[in-house]
Amino acid sequence: MLVMAGASASGKTEIAKIIIQKYGFKKMITYTTRNKRDGECKGIDYHFISLESFLELKKNDFFIETTLYNGNYYGTAFQDTSFDKVLIVDTNGANILYECLKSKVTIFFLEAPDDIRRDRMRKRGDQEEDIEHRIHEDATYFLKENLHHIDYIIATHHEGLESLADRIYKLYINYVVK
């Protein structure tokens, strides 16, 4: 499974969309207790569920990994894991997936400078107070040192999204074929 982790607005979602469209991968649709953002669709972007439902599923070992990020729960279902899927997770999720699946996951850590990330968040319509909160929280939460394992570190601010998606796909395929 192709796993991407990185701070808010590091490029994960946009790169995943290109890999899905261009190379026929499927998006791992995870579960969350957070509210939908404008333009998001239930069952396409996330499975948006109540806190009570999430906690019940967690209690019943439905998830391979869960995390609490920015006041909301996120989780990946055991039944949804496969080679041809792209999954976006936080550092906690990446660590749990690596511990459970080892060589069945390839972990990419995506990074970009804070000023670039701020600009990306503004362009997608995030509120200024949310942007500053994410920048502040991500400074400690998304440290490379918090990951137990990283296969590739990708800087996302020096080249276009299409080029980044191609590079990540090629690295993933070459890594899996080894």
Keywords:
178 residues, alpha/beta, Rossmann fold, 2 domains, four-stranded mixed beta sheet, globular
How would you explain this protein's 3D organization?
This protein is an alpha/beta fold. The chain folds into two domains: 1-28 and 83-178, 3-Layer(aba) Sandwich (Rossmann fold), CATH 3.40.50; 29-80, Guanylate Kinase phosphate binding domain (2-Layer Sandwich), CATH 3.30.63. The protein contains six helices and nine strands. It has helices at 12-23, 51-59, 91-101, 114-123, 128-141, 161-177, and strands at residues 2-6, 26-27, 31-32, 47-48, 63-69, 72-77, 85-89, 106-111, 152-155. A hairpin with a 2-residue loop joins strand 5 and strand 6 (72-77). Helix 1 (12-23) crosses helix 6 and helix 4 (114-123) packs antiparallel against helix 5.
